[in-house]
Design goal:
Number of strands: 4
GO molecular function, one term: NADH pyrophosphatase activity
Organism: Mustela putorius furo (European domestic ferret)
EC number: 3.6.1.-
Shape: globular
Largest sheet: 2 strands, antiparallel
Helix content: 25-40%
Structural class: alpha+beta
Subunit structure: Monomer and homodimer.
Strand content: 15-25%
Radius of gyration: 17 Å
Order of helices and strands: HEEHHEEH
Function: May contribute to the regulation of cell proliferation.
Number of helices: 4
Length: 140
């Protein structure tokens, strides 16, 4: 789905998943970003497709039939192996399998809110999580 003006990445993912599937969730991390130019469906603009890892809080699917043809829970191993999907879906399924097996710290871009240079404003920085001994380092 599309972000609303001024809507954060994680908030867009949570809202769109709810609108399209009826599943309530919370943002956990940013997994990947696809950048594409001259996409005919992007209103003449470059297109960025952001994939987030969410934690579900509900599991009963009530999908929007205007936006989805089919909606179901699938085993990640099956999804990673199926030939009946897009390359991005099978790649992200393999990425998630790796995270489950080796730890999400290996794949997640976490979000940290930091103060902007403008007083009273903040921004969200997405990055691999730093080890504890690097989080508060000063004066190298």
């Amino acid at each position: 789905g599309l972000s609303e003006p001024g809507e954060d990445i994680g908030d867009t993912a949570v809202r769109e998943v709810f609108e399209e599937t009826g599943i309530r969730s919370e943002f956990r991390s940013l997994l990947s970003l696809r950048q594409q130019h001259t996409n005919p469906g992007a209103f003449g603009k470059s297109d960025m497709y952001i994939i987030c890892r969410l934690k579900p809080h509900s599991f009963t699917i009530d999908f929007c039939q205007h936006e989805c043809l089919r909606c179901e829970w699938m085993d990640l191993s099956d999804l990673a192996k199926t030939e009946n999907t897009t390359p991005i879906t099978s790649r992200v399924a393999r990425l998630l399998l790796y995270g489950y097996r080796e730890g999400f710290d290996k794949i997640d871009f976490t979000m940290e809110e930091l103060p902007a240079v403008y007083t009273g404003l903040f921004y969200k920085l997405y990055h691999k999580e730093l080890p504890a001994n690097y989080r508060t380092m000063t004066g190298m």
